[in-house]
Amino acid sequence: MPVTPITELNERARDVFRLVVESYLGTGLPVGSRTISKLASLSLSPASIRNVMQDLEELGLLAAPHTSAGRMPTETGLRLFVDGMMQAAEPSPEERRAIEAGISEGGPIEEALSAATAALSGLSACAGIVMVPKREPVLRQFGFVPLNGRQALAVLVGQDGSIENRVLDLPEGVTPMMLNEAANFMSARFGGMTLRDAGEALRREMENERSALQGAARELVERGIAVWSHDADDRPVLIVRGQAHLLDDGTAADLERVRQLLEQLEGKEEISRLLESALAGSATKIFIGSENKLFSLSGSSVIAAPYRGGDGRVVGVVGVIGPTRLNYARVIPMVDFTAQTLSRLMR
């Protein structure tokens, strides 16, 4: 159904509609005319309010789930509210600090993305989602930092300045000198290559016995390349955190909808395809209920914002999934801020 332009509603209808939507988003319950009439900002009798609500229902903006049970906004009504009436509330200093605290520089980028998603989930009481950038870093430098006699920290520096660390089990007999030798060899031999190309080059050298390294140093190089290559192959495309937030007190009578949503979250490929549509834009996208066929059964909403890499290009998407009655005015700016924070991290 086409969304009725907000300009086609008179002032009385806009006031009643806004109050119904705000009350519904706060409680998750249908709103009756008597409830609206008690609000100090509206000087209308319950009978007048009922007439206005009936008109809004005929326009497809409100619906009555049960006879005389009050009204609630339809998905069309929610879209009108979000696009034309909502007054966004910027994240508080406490909310900003909570999001930023979960993101630390250094270490695997997925850890920062996961932490940001978990923080966003906790603050919004929704499931947090983030699409990990599909990237194959071009290598610049390798390093090994001994931790103890059996392990070392493998450090990879990319051409874009990114730094990632992994703990590596050491072969028997590796000395600190061997760690330096292997790191210098890898930096000189594989600098400027992707991990995939470096692995192929190492395999060819080993097959042809042309490697300058032997014994424990040679095995160390093999393990160093392997830990990065395997890790890149296993990286999740989509990280989901906070599914438990979807099982709040208000879902007890709506368990089938929640079950459908949880199943949809398990099918990460379909969610990823939805988020990919947000990669093409520069602004936050909002999908309400059946506007996207993926959520036609669960009646869920998605708020997703793109974040950028060091070169300014969009590399991923972060957002939340929750019920259509979520607090859009609060959550949309929160998702925006998380995307901006991730963009700063990726520079």
Automatic annotation (TrEMBL):
Role of this protein = Negative regulator of class I heat shock genes (grpE-dnaK-dnaJ and groELS operons). Prevents heat-shock induction of these operons.
Q: Which Gene3D superfamilies match?
A: 3.30.450.40, Winged helix-like DNA-binding domain superfamily/Winged helix DNA-binding domain (1.10.10.10)
Q: Which family does it belong to?
A: Belongs to the HrcA family.
Q: Which domain of life is it from?
A: Bacteria
Protein transport as a keyword?
A: no
Q: Which InterPro entries match?
A: GAF-like_dom_sf, HrcA, HrcA_C, WH-like_DNA-bd_sf, WH_DNA-bd_sf
Gene name linked to the record: hrcA
Q: What is this protein called?
A: Heat-inducible transcription repressor HrcA
Q: Where does the record place the Heat-inducible transcription repressor HrcA C-terminal domain?
A: 110-332
Instruction: Write down the Pfam families for this protein, in alphabetical order.
Output: HrcA
Record-linked SUPFAM superfamilies: GAF domain-like (SSF55781), Winged helix' DNA-binding domain (SSF46785)
